[in-house]
Amino acid sequence: MTAPPVPAPRRSRPIREGVVASTLHLPPGDWASVLDCLCAHFPAVGRERWQARMQRGLVLDAAGEPIEAARAYRPGLRVHYFREVEAEVPVAAAETIVHADARLVVVDKPPGLPVVPAGGHVRETLLARLIRRLGNPDLVPLHRIDRATCGLVMFSAEPASRARYQALFAARAIGKQYEALAPPLPGLAFPLVRRSRIVAGEPFPRMREAPGEANAETRIDVVARGADRWRYRLEPVTGRKHQLRVQMAALGAPIVGDELYGDAAAPARLRLLACALAFDDPLDGRPRRFASTLRLDD
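The chain above was modelled as a monomer; its predicted structure follows.
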């Protein structure tokens, strides 16, 4: 009996200095060249910058070979390209690896460092740093925290088990615990549960609470009470953008250092820490718990 064909090995996207290339499948059109298509698809980049990227080998085909500016356009062609940011500002603070095994990597992210490339950050991201540091291009964040927030972020280290861990977040089967410093709320009884509807606000990237069915839920308690600020324990059940910051501000206690939802002249550091993650491992059922090495008062 003839043996079934062996599937081709999975080809990872190209990586350069820890940055994973973006990918575009060229859409239908009547462009003469790949360059023309890219210029039309990304007009903000500009033709000269695309040409410069091509000359430096930063635009590749599916086989990882450089695409020249004169390469003929073909719909559906897979193009890998590397984003660039002029004068990317370095983030001085370092990440700390809390746990690493063949399947999971858990890291303490310092404030000011994005988890993945966005806006003016490409190389200076937690993902790019870890790929360079660990030499593992298969790293993928299983969840994210805001750039201004510090604390635990968990990464999948291998494709084989990734979906099992991603399913935990989708099923809300991971306990996430944060601590925050914020003004006192003496008129409220704790612990309490805040349920609200969070939608996009103005200007970007603000969010806001709005009337309607709740899509965000957080359990809130007080850990310590000071004269002008309390230490709160926040346990989000859902994961809406800026959820904790929006809900604390709506209660009348914007988190210290929150320039978006509190004082526009607030100190640079947001006092919000992702301090614990807990779940039952989907592969062997054992309880897993990870605690941050950071402190809000550091």
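The first strand starts at residue 15 and ends at 16.
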